[in-house]
Amino acid sequence: MNHVELREGSRVALLVPGSAAYVDLVMSLLAAGMFPIPLDPRLTSYERERILAPLRPDLVVETEDLLASMVEHTPERYRRGVPRGRPIHCTSGTTGTPKGVFSGLLDPEQAAALVAEERELWGFTDTDVNLVLSPLHHSAPLRFATGTILAGGRIVVPGPFDPATVTDAIERERPTSMFCVPTHLQRLFAHWDAVGVPDLSSFRLVAHAGAPCPVDVKRRLIAEFPAGSTWEFYGSTEGQFTACRSEEWLERPGTVGRARPGRALELDEDGTIWCSVPEHARFSYLGDPEKTAAAWRDAADGRQAFTVGDLGRLDDEGYLHLDGRREDLIISGGVNVYPLEVEQALLEHPGVEDVAVHGVPDEQWGQRVCAAVVGSATEEELVAHARERLAPPKRPKTWTFLDELPRTLTGKVRRDLLVEVREPGSASP
Q1: Judgement on whether residues 357 and 298 belong to the same structural domain of the protein
Q2: N or C: the chain end with fewer CB closer than 10 Å?
Q3: Nearest to residue 177, comparing CAs of 211, 143, 210, 137?
Q4: pTM for this prediction
Q5: 285, 254 Cβ separation under 8 angstroms
Q6: Are residues 91 and 141 both part of a single domain?
Q7: Are 368 and 397 contacting, i.e. CB atoms less than 8 angstroms apart?
Q8: Each residue of 66-105: pLDDT tens digit?
C-alpha cells in the first residue's frame, strides 16, 4: 500500500461507489491484514461522523481517484490473496446508531477456513460470473463478489440498480450467479412483463435474502430461473445462520432453511435464535464490550453461539421459521404480536404490494398495532382481510398508506422512520 500511515491492523473507511476496483481494494486490504470499512457514500456529514467516531479509521477514502491510486500501488503479493479477516461492516441502523462488526485478524488456518466455507456452500469456481445488483458496501453482495474472484471467476458491476441495465447485462455477460433482495426481483419481473424475459439459462445460483419475500414473487423466481438454482439464506451483518434451496421451501413454505454447514441452531424458551459458529466466524462490536458480551454465550455443542435478537421456531427436522425480531415485537394488551406474521398475512391480499407492521405507544393497551401499506387496497378491504386471517390482537388498528416504504439498500424496513399520520380509532387490540 502506498500510504505510510497504513500497517497491519489499520482501518480504512470506504465512502465511494461500488466497482470492480472497489472489490480489488477490499480484497487487497484484507490480504494485507488491514480492515476496510465499507459505507454508503451518500451518508451525510453528520451520519459519517456518528458512525466513524467509534471505529477510528486510519484513512477515509472519499474519491475514486484515491481508490484507483491505492489499487494501482498494491503490492503484487496482496492481490487476490487470502483475506486475513472480514470487512468491518456496520449493522443496518434500523434502530439506533450502527455498530461496527469486527472479526479481528485470523490465523492462517482460520483464514483458509473462512474462504473454504463460502466456496463449499455456494460452489464458486473459476468459470463463475457474478452479477452484482446490490451496493457493494453491504456484506452479502461483497461476500459473493469476493468469493467469486477468490475462486478465479469474475464480477460484473452494472452500477446503481436499474431493471433495464440489469437485463442488458444478463443478455451480454451471461452471468452464473447473483445475490438480490426481493425488491430487485419485483422490479425485474415488472420490467420483464413489459419487455419479455431474457435467457436465464446461464444462472446456476440466484440467492436472495435481506427481507421477507412475497409468496408470489418466490414462486415466480422458482419458475423463471433454472431448476435447482434458487436459494434463500437467513443471516445478518454479524453472521450467517441458514441456507435453503427453493425446493426445500416448496416442501415447507415459509422456512428459511436449516443451519448452514459448520453451524448449529438452538432456541430459548421465548424463541430467541442462537447460532453456534466456528472460530473464524466470531466477532465483536467495536467500542461496545457490553453489547458484545450480550450477543454471545456458551452453546450446547461446546462452541460459542451468538444472537441478534431474532425470534423463530424449529421444526422436527431442524428447519427454521422466523417470527421476527425481538426489537420489533409489539406487546398489545399483554399479547405478543410479531410484525412478520401480520405482514405475511396482509401480503396475501392482491392489493398489497408492500407492507410494514409496527407498534406505537398506547395509553390503554401499552402498544397499538399499526400497518404502513403500499398498494391499491383500501382500508375497508384490509380490515376485512385481517379479520379473516388474524386474531383480534394481531389486527392493525391504524392504517397508513404510502407510495413506498422507507428501506435500507439491502431491503430492511426503517421502522424508526415509520410515522403515524392519523389519529387512532377506538378499536381494542
Answers
A1: no
A2: N
A3: 143
A4: 0.80
A5: no
A6: yes
A7: yes
A8: 999 999 999 999 988 999 999 999 986 544 567 899 999 9
